[in-house]
Amino acid sequence: MKTRLSKGRVDSASHALSSPETMIDLHGVVKTFKNAAGEFIVLEGIDLTINRGEFVSIVGKSGSGKSTLLNMITGIDHPTDGRVVIGGTDIYTGVTESQRSRWRGRNLGIVFQFFQLLPMLTLLENAMLPMDYAEMYDFDERPNHALDMLKLVGLEEFANKLPVLVSTGQQQLAAIARALACDPPLLVADEPTGNLDTKSASTIIDLFEELSRRGKTVLIVTHDPSVTSRTTRNITIADGVIIGDSVNRRSKIVNQKS
To answer: How many domains does the chain have?
Structure first.
């Protein structure tokens, strides 16, 4: 019998006992790599809990382990040891690559630094891709839903343009619309403002703040202080260990007033 994945679960996965408010729950996560020089540790026993609706930045120098940590959370790479529980589901224990990939398509929105839009497709067609892959929404509903996502990021009038015909800031907004296409509870972004001018970057962060207020969990890896000043929580990683985890009180005050 063919296995089908429903939104919010991974078939055959073990489910951890975590709070309903918890979106990300990491327990003793270790990641090691081997090369000709031997084995080296990239993540060393990471414990981390992030609740639903938090807007969190992860910062650290190049090689600190922040991108590897992101790969653990998104199911792109396997931990050497430990558990990764997302939305109450252990995404590695007893789960095949195919199941995890399917789960990721329905539960995660991922935004990359270099957009990764398909150049031969319009912005509307790019925004439809996750729905096609995850088999979400009826086929005839997908164009309208994709257009709704483009409206959310202010790009409805550019829906039928190719990526090359819009600005880099608009391309990143289109990538966010694509990431939101399946209405995932968790949005993960890797240096999303790294290639943008100040105005475009501010527009992106405004959108992330709004998504967080709507209840989505937003997690950003960034080097940009103008981004970390606006997230509600900042996590610092160095040499594979979390060395700082602080609440940004100024950002919380701004969000409460807005």
So the answer is: 1
